[in-house]
Amino acid sequence: MAMPGAPRTPRLFLPASFGEGMTEAMPHLSRLAAAASLLAAMTLTGANVAFGKAVVAEFPIYVFVLFRFAVATAALLLVAGAESGPRLKDMTQGQRRDLVLMALFGMVGFTVLIFEGLKRTAAADAGIITATLPAVVALLGVIAIGDRLSRPQAGAVVLAVAGLILVQASGAASGTSTLLGNLFVGGAVLCEASFVLLGKRLAPPYRPLRLALGANLVGLVLSLPLALMELPTFDPASVRPAMWALGVWYSLAASVICLWLWYRGLPHVETWLAGLTTAAIPVAALGMSALYLGETIGPARLAGAALVIGAIVLGALAAPRPPRP
What we know:
Blueprint: H1 31-56, H2 61-79, H3 93-118, H4 123-130, H5 133-145, H6 151-169, H7 179-202, H8 208-228, H9 241-265, H10 271-277, H11 280-292, H12 299-317
């Protein structure tokens, strides 16, 4: 379907015929409502960071990644069939490729790299690196699919990055950073940026629940070889029942609820604005860390959070520029 601000002639890796043969149009959302849906998805994603840290303290990382996709796939199999629109089996070869890449980079890749990075670098450094995500998405959108940013839009991206740096740098916890750890976190940022761009190619015509099911099925298959390295030494009895329950919630929130909210809003906004809403991830993580882990939030971090929220509102209200010819 045609989207405000979407390029009529995609560039680089976007096939010009993408979207042809759509069997059913997706329900229209206003630009502001779509941005709110994306923001809700990213806020929930950020809130899950504190829960994820608690869970992987008892689960091996790769076992938990497999568990996440297994739980989410089982839940989506129960509900996705009732959703209208084209089915996953009707995907073209190019769409299947995009689905595999999206799951590989945006789900398996991001999860593994961010956890591996946090094992090797200070949380403050990791936070500053992930603060570049909105700018990375906006830049890739300009380079790859011809997005054009107006001055207010570019200002919103800069404002979001400034706010995130302030959030993460203020009151930074001491720790040891390594180049390898920082590279892992940087790789996670690129993975998440790829997730945003690839989702723009699949969200129309595929509906949110079915697209989430496809992504989780692929993630389940891709994570199995990694989990096989840890499964022989994993003792399920070593994980407390409360952590099993928390792991189930994390899986459903991250791979079902968040994806439904994300794919619901993604077709109706430009790539740069979708990337801007990812600025909510570290801000929400900060709030949940205070509530769940008992960490202290100072005035500087609150100011940074206010900058991020203001940037998202400014970006949602800024009029989109026409695409490059």
